[in-house]
Design a protein that fits this description.
The complex is a heterodimer of chains A (321) and B (295). Chain A has a domain of 196 residues. Helix content of chain A is 74%, strand content 1%. Chain A has 16 helices and two strands. In chain A, strands 1-2 form a two-stranded antiparallel sheet. In chain A, α2 runs parallel beside α6 and α10 crosses α12. Chain A is globular. The C terminus of chain A is likely disordered. Helices cover 74% and strands 4% of the residues of chain B. Chain B has eleven helices and four strands. In chain B, strands 1-4 form a two-stranded antiparallel sheet. The model of chain B has no long low-confidence stretch (mean pLDDT 86). The chains are: A mainly alpha (321), B mainly alpha (295). At the A-B interface, α5, α10, α12 and α16 of A face α3, α4, α9 and α11 of B.
Chain lengths: 321, 295
């Protein structure tokens, strides 16, 4: 076990940072905020932590904490500015934000190390710290999926007007999504630079957005379990797929495209559907006449959302923006 | 003066590329993230063909248009149509199309990167050669002239088709309300296929002209151009034909300005910053109609 642990330490570390980064995109997505800003926060967090360690010899946890604070504040400011955008416009604005971070890092001169980036980030960061930090944020994310907060998040995602009429401060929830995304992204970036000791503009490019999306979409966008599955699969798949070698990117593309078309709710969604089907079967031991089973009601309308037909009719009543 | 010429020829390339993207986004609500990959892969196919036989520029352009249109149709049939058919809400469909497009875009990119080892490739096998003409103090290449003419003509034709033809009217009605347009007897599927083919063909054409005037492109060129096209469309307003032309030339102008007055690679930041500023100040774009999105 210890042999295996040390032989695969790099992959274990990558799984943890990958998981936190995936959560930084998934948390806003779960609130209906289509933001990729977590990836930009990852870059800011990584650079901030690296600079704090290099120039001020800060201990790892303090540097990570400050980097997270910085990215959370940036997330809040970004949220204040662009939270009123919706859907694709929001997605595009956050992609632009991520790419600007990369351009700034490239043009930052000696401060950011230009196109080579920063290296030699050596600190007192240990693996127990990494595990504990990851478990803490994962625990917080799990908490936000249950109970009162979880139900409110569902409502904010599925119908903002309805949520607002039920007394939920939608704007505050959407802002919270930006702050959480910023802090999570910052943590992922800072932890990554602590274990890798280098960071460069190439590490925070468009590919990182694709990776985060891949993890979430294939794993499942609506639950932390999806992010965990996605992070594990896409960190360990490359070693399992060594025989494909250079065709790895190609395979990733095919997997993402297929998942987006066929399994929009990811592997986690398939599990949910299977368990539901299994429970339904157990509840009905004797096969009832087909006429009664035909109109199966949706067990969890909030999860799946209204059908397109009802969506347009309710929206006509709901008025225009 | 020289800057003006480079602005106009760069702007024409942007226009050709962004026009197709704007057409699908503004009407059938498909934000095709694979548009840049289509642009790149059409050129890449032409490059492969030119490795075997020498062809005149017209034939190369035809290859680009056909490959672009076919790729675009394939993506529509294999990915976007199934997504639209299965998606429960418009928002989830939009998201799936975006993510599916990102996934699809990596496929041609991976193929081209593997074949070229990520090196730039050009259209050197063509019988066409770049000539420089001197008009007083201004230098202009024959391919730049061709690009400007083709870009403006195609833009004019598309705008006219969009405004005046029956199909254009049908397309615009889909853009306003796709369900009601179906009730009025518009064949949405067929129209979407036509639009996607036109859009892909434009991407292929832009790829050939861009590569011919620049000499060579890298497999990643499409991605950068895609972000710039988003900036152009957002600046002009989604679905607006005047807007996309204005956006293309405005971006080319600012980029040329930044390029001549600063060092380093800040030019890319212009497009990203522009997306941001416009979305803040005027989310509907300069020429966009007010968004009447419901739900």
């Amino acid at each position: 076990m210890t042999d295996w642990y040390f032989a695969n330490l790099v992959l274990i570390q990558a799984t943890l940072t990958g998981l936190v980064m995936a959560l930084s995109v998934q948390v806003p997505l779960r609130m209906g905020v289509f933001s990729f800003a977590g990836v930009g926060s990852y870059g800011v967090g990584a650079y901030a932590a690296a600079l704090l360690v290099i120039h001020m010899q800060m201990p790892a946890l303090a540097a990570i904490g400050l980097a997270m604070l910085l990215t959370a504040v940036i997330g809040l400011l970004l949220g204040l500015v662009i939270a009123r955008l919706a859907g694709l416009y929001l997605a595009m604005a956050t992609v632009a934000f991520d790419l600007i971070i990369g351009v700034v890092a490239t043009n930052g001169g000696t401060f950011t190390g230009g196109s080579t980036g920063l290296y030699g980030v050596l600190s007192d960061f240990t693996m127990p710290m990494m595990f504990i930090l990851t478990l803490i944020v994962l625990g917080l994310v799990i908490l936000s999926e249950h109970g009162k907060v979880g139900r409110r998040v569902h409502a904010v995602r599925d119908d903002q007007q309805l949520a607002a009429s039920a007394g939920i401060n939608v704007r505050r929830y959407r802002l919270a999504a930006f702050v959480a995304s910023g802090a999570l992204g910052g943590l992922a970036g800072a932890m990554n630079v602590m274990v890798r000791s280098t960071i460069g503009p190439l590490d925070i490019g468009f590919g990182l957005i694709v990776l985060a999306l891949t993890m979430i979409i294939v794993g499942g966008a609506m639950s932390w379990k999806g992010a965990v599955m996605g992070a594990i699969i896409f960190t360990w798949l490359p070693t399992l797929l060594e025989f494909v070698g250079k065709w790895q990117t190609l395979l990733y593309g095919i997997i993402v495209a297929t998942a987006a078309v066929l399994l929009p709710r990811g592997i986690h969604g398939v599990f949910v559907d299977l368990t539901r089907w299994w429970q339904r079967r157990r509840r009905e031991p004797v096969a009832p006449p087909p006429a009664e089973t035909a109109p199966e009601p949706d067990l969890e309308p909030l999860m799946t959302g209204p059908t397109s037909g009802t969506a347009s009719s309710t929206s006509l009543l709901g008025g225009t923006a | 003066m020289q800057e003006l010429v480079s602005t106009i020829s760069l702007g024409s390339i942007y226009l050709l590329f962004a026009l197709g993207l704007s057409l699908t986004w503004g009407t059938i609500d498909i934000l095709n993230f694979a548009h840049g990959a289509i642009f790149m892969f059409s050129t890449f196919t032409a490059y492969l063909v030119l490795g075997h036989i020498q062809l005149p520029l017209v034939a190369v352009i035809l290859i680009g248009i056909v490959v672009g249109a076919v790729l675009s149709l394939l993506i529509q049939v294999l990915a976007f149509e199934p997504i639209l058919k299965r998606a429960r809400t418009k928002r989830s469909a939009e998201m799936q199309i975006l993510i599916g497009g990102i996934g699809i875009a990596t496929i041609p990119l991976a193929i081209a990167e593997e074949q070229t080892k990520s090196n730039p490739f050009g259209l050197t096998g063509s019988t066409f050669s770049v000539n420089v003409w001197h008009l007083g103090s201004v230098r202009i290449t024959n391919i730049a002239v061709l690009t400007i003419i083709v870009g403006l003509l195609l833009w004019g034709a598309t705008a006219l088709w969009f405004r005046r033809s029956k199909q254009g009217l049908a397309l615009r009605s889909i853009g306003v309300d796709s369900e009601v347009s179906s009730l009025m007897g518009i064949n949405r599927r067929q129209l979407a296929l036509v639009t996607m083919a036109v859009s892909g063909g434009m991407a292929g054409l832009a790829g050939i002209l861009f590569t011919a005037s620049l000499g060579a492109i890298t497999p990643e060129s499409g991605d950068i151009l895609l972000i710039k096209a988003f900036a152009i469309i957002i600046l002009g307003g989604v679905g607006s034909m005047v807007g996309v032309a204005f956006g293309a030339f405005a971006l080319a102008f600012v980029e040329t300005l930044v390029l001549t007055h600063t060092s380093g690679s800040w030019t890319d930041a212009v497009a990203f910053g522009l997306i941001f500023l416009v979305l803040l100040a005027r989310p509907a774009g300069l020429f966009g109609r007010k968004e009447v999105r419901r739900a």
